Amino acid sequence: MTKQWTTKKGTHRGGKPFNKTSLHRLLTNVTYIGKLRYKDEVHEGEQDGIVDPDVFEKVQARLNRNGRSGGSEVRNKHGALLKGILRCKACDCSMTPSHSTKAGNKRYRYYVCLQAQKRGWDKCPTKSVPAGEIERFVVEQVRAIGRDRLLARESIEKASASVREQIAALATEELLIQRNLAQWQNQLADVIRKLPAGDEDSVLLGILADLQDRIRENEKRLSEIRIDSDGLRKTMVDPDEAAEALASFDELWDTLVPREQAETLQMLIRQIEYDGMSERIAITFHMAGIKSIESRLLAETPE
Ligand SMILES: [Zn+2]
């Protein structure tokens, strides 16, 4: 777990499992070798190091090497930021990254509608879209939301309200099932009491089997409901903290390496629908993704 502390405002921070970002911070923190970082400079610190400088250097070398090769491997081969999240609205299918080589060896990247590719160009009004353009647009939209706290808060509250409604509906269903279950269990006990010992009463046995089936089915549904509402509850975010997370998305975007940019965007956005006719783009956020971003980007240690 990461270090825990309480902010001046009384908010609890840290105490979360290490993620890639917090682990990276830990491994690259020069405080552990008795130094001090001021902006881009590293100075001798007042404190003694607790990590062998040789080990520290080896770790840095390995991080640098893996960071570079990881970049090209993790990021897909066309370097497509929106792979897996961009969809063609008209065909309700995904748009996949592709590229062509134009004259002069300049690579032209685009996303193409899978249906248009399979069933013919004239079947789809969207067809394809230049990759650079739509990527820049989407990133700019997300950053703009991050810059506008009020807008971020509103969007998150709207999404939270719909999650709360779904949780409430599940709770109502759960209550109803529990009431029925109690009733059926009483009836079951009743039937068992009435069953003559050693004798087979086909009517009573039929009722018994029917009750047992109903109870089994509804207990199954009950556990589904609990899993679903647990899952939904986990996606709930605090609007203020989520707005803060989106703000840090804007602030940190330029400092992220391409691989991290792709990861962060994929984590944050569930889908982007592109309508080639009207050229409209609809971005749907992942509530759970906002939460991950929150813990990823806000896992900073206090001053
Ligand atoms: Zn299409």
UniProtKB/TrEMBL annotation:
The organism's place on the tree of life at top rank: Bacteria
Region (Disordered): 1-20
PROSITE patterns per UniProt: RECOMBINASE_DNA_BIND (PS51737)
Start and end residues of each Recombinase domain: 1-69
Entry keyword set: DNA recombination, DNA-binding
Keyword hit for DNA-binding: yes
MF (Gene Ontology): DNA binding; DNA strand exchange activity
PANTHER family, sorted: DNA-INVERTASE FROM LAMBDOID PROPHAGE, SERINE RECOMBINASE PINE-RELATED
Name used for this protein in its record: Recombinase
